[in-house]
Design goal:
single chain; alpha+beta; four-stranded antiparallel sheet; 8 strands; about 25% helix
């Protein structure tokens, strides 16, 4: 079975998600994971699908990108093997005045603790910069990590919090 990573980017407009999903469905692509967002008026979508060959997916997306406004890339990827999370789920939130290096500095602290960022969103709203990240931390790594994050954040002029993510599922 083919597993494909597909990205679609370009100026936002209504209907892009529907156009992409319909084109892929016509060639039997089952969307297994996806994310889509608008970044300063630009559409950005990344998805993983299984089913068609790379060339079939590229051909299916040709009409979607024909006007030159959108760019789509299709890449064959290996099928993910079942993976048990190696860490504990945490949420990191950062907010403060925008400045260069916030993401780099704080994610470096997480990486040095063995943390894996599994989802990250940033948004600049006027002068306020907001970062939200889902992170897997090795067992026990959170001990002392909050203090290190606060120290680095203070040097950047932002505030940070790290808390264990609680599951809503039973």
């Amino acid at each position: 079975m083919n597993e494909l990573a597909i990205t679609v980017i370009g100026p936002d407009r209504p209907g892009i998600v529907a156009d992409v999903a319909e084109a892929l469905a016509r060639v039997g692509a089952n969307l297994t994971d996806s994310t889509m967002t608008r970044l300063r008026g630009h559409f950005a979508m990344t998805l993983i699908c299984v089913g068609p060959a790379k060339e079939q997916a590229e051909d299916a997306l040709t009409p979607v990108v024909a006007d030159g406004q959108l760019v789509a890339t299709v890449r064959q990827v290996g099928v993910e093997t079942a993976r048990t999370p190696v860490g504990e789920p945490y949420l990191m939130a950062v907010h403060g005045a925008d400045r260069l290096g916030i993401v780099a500095a704080l994610t470096r602290v997480l990486a040095e603790a063995g943390g894996n960022v599994t989802d990250l969103t940033t948004r600049l709203t006027g002068p306020l910069y907001v970062l939200l990240a889902e992170v897997e931390l090795p067992p026990g790594a959170a001990d002392g990590l909050s203090d290190r994050l606060v120290e680095v954040a203070a040097g950047l002029g932002v505030e940070v919090s790290l808390r264990r993510a609680e599951s809503d599922l039973f």
